[in-house]
Design goal:
The structure is a homodimer. By secondary structure, the first copy, chain A, is an all-alpha fold. Helix content of chain A is 72%, strand content 0%. Chain A has ten helices and no strands. In chain A, helix 1 packs across helix 2 (41-48), helix 1 packs across helix 4 and helix 4 (62-87) packs antiparallel against helix 5 (91-104). Chain A is elongated and about 55 Å long. Chains A and B meet through helix 6, helix 7, helix 8 and helix 9 of A and helix 6, helix 7, helix 8 and helix 9 of B. Chain A binds a DNA duplex through residues 9, 11-16, 19, 40-42, 50-58, 61-62.
Chain lengths: 209, 209
DNA sequence: GCTAAAGTTGGGCAACTGCCCAGGGCGAAT
DNA sequence: ATTCGCCCTGGGCAGTTGCCCAACTTTAGC
């Protein structure tokens, strides 16, 4: 069995899996450093410390490797965020989780750049596009569900608002040079809090960070 | 005088200016079609209908041509927007201008893609980065000034809010596949209207700076 | 031990890249 | 009519790209 192409072979050997992992890690780093389309076969091999030929042994193409690396990274941070958000038991705590997460993604933060690079690459790659859309949809559903549980707002409304806000703030933080978290924080707080005011006259203001 | 490099020579001849213009137009198109770093010398020449050598005769480098094209395009739409916004005499009319402008930038709209491509390219090009930042700052100042005139909110507060919102909504529209204007419009409206309620309702909010 | 599969190597290929440049044409001033 | 810049041409250069592949080593099953 020639296995036609080792497109997504899950690596039967320990060493094989290790090399695969090193290539994926190298890909994530390089996307941030030189941009999605600036990553080359030789670069990846050198960064991962393996022979150039291995790139196309473990992955069908450079594009496939980059897509895989981007999706893995995003899936990772969504999972991490999910854990944090589930630990928050009040609307204030949940808002705090979001805000501190945004603090983590500062200025030209690697993760922000990886996000934007990937989304832009997805513009010309239908397969990556749908895969990415799934991750994002998952993230938004997670947010909407949690906010509904906490009684902040109706699920669909919250989802739409939060989706636009988070997308926007990630871009804003990633691309605007001198923008501090302080600029962006009150905007998000404003988006999320009004719904509570409707429930009852709540004067409680968020403490400044 | 060898003129060292014809870096930004303003083309003395009619034909010269025409070729320059065609190259700039081709650049703007190609950035959207194949991505910033996917544009090549030959592509540009073919699209503009001129000999390949002309690209480096009129511009110092391909990068310089792309930067110039992107900045010109952005400057153009900012000017157009400025004219529309100055025609709006009430806060509602101004909001309407913004919302209808966003309607124009739908889904995978060329202009949205050009924006994001350029911002991302600016991440690795300091010169482009500062030039772009200037255009964006100009745009934000324009918005803030106009809203202050219309009595919507204090200038600095409006600037921060609108900046984040517009950045965000452009990305949101550009990258989210099925997003309609209807999803995004109420969010922006919500960001812009509360300030008016503040003036009349006089609910003292803590300034966030 | 032996065999077959999985993994690895580094060179090779055609296609492309940005930029250069010797040379030619053309309009305007002299 | 000659000269002088500007404009234009198309090929050439050295370098890089993605992907392939024949030969090699390592690993797993028996």
């Amino acid at each position: 069995m020639t296995a036609e192409r080792r497109v997504m072979a899950a690596s039967a050997t320990v060493r094989g899996r290790e090399v695969r992992g090193r290539l994926l890690a190298a890909a994530a780093e390089l996307i941030v450093e030189v941009g999605w389309s600036g990553v080359s076969t030789r670069m990846l091999a050198e960064r991962a410390g393996v022979a150039p030929g291995l790139v196309h042994y473990h992955f069908a193409s450079v594009q496939a490797l980059l897509s895989r690396a981007a999706l893995d990274s995003m899936h990772g941070i969504v999972e991490e965020f999910r854990a944090q958000l589930e630990g928050a038991s009040t609307p204030e705590a949940a808002l705090e989780v979001i805000l501190s997460a945004l603090d983590g993604y500062s200025g030209r933060d690697p993760m922000s750049l990886l996000f934007v690079e990937s989304f832009l690459a997805a513009t010309r790659d239908e397969e990556l596009h749908t895969a990415l859309a799934a991750v994002v949809a998952d993230f938004r559903a997670l947010l909407a569900r949690r906010f509904a549980q906490l009684g902040v707002a109706a699920p669909d409304q919250t989802a739409a608002v939060v989706a636009a806000a988070v997308d926007g703030l990630v871009l804003h933080r990633a691309l605007s040079p001198g923008t501090s978290a302080a600029t962006v924080t009150p905007v998000l707080a404003r988006l999320l809090t009004p719904a509570r005011r409707q429930q009852r006259g709540n004067r409680k203001d968020r403490a400044s960070r």
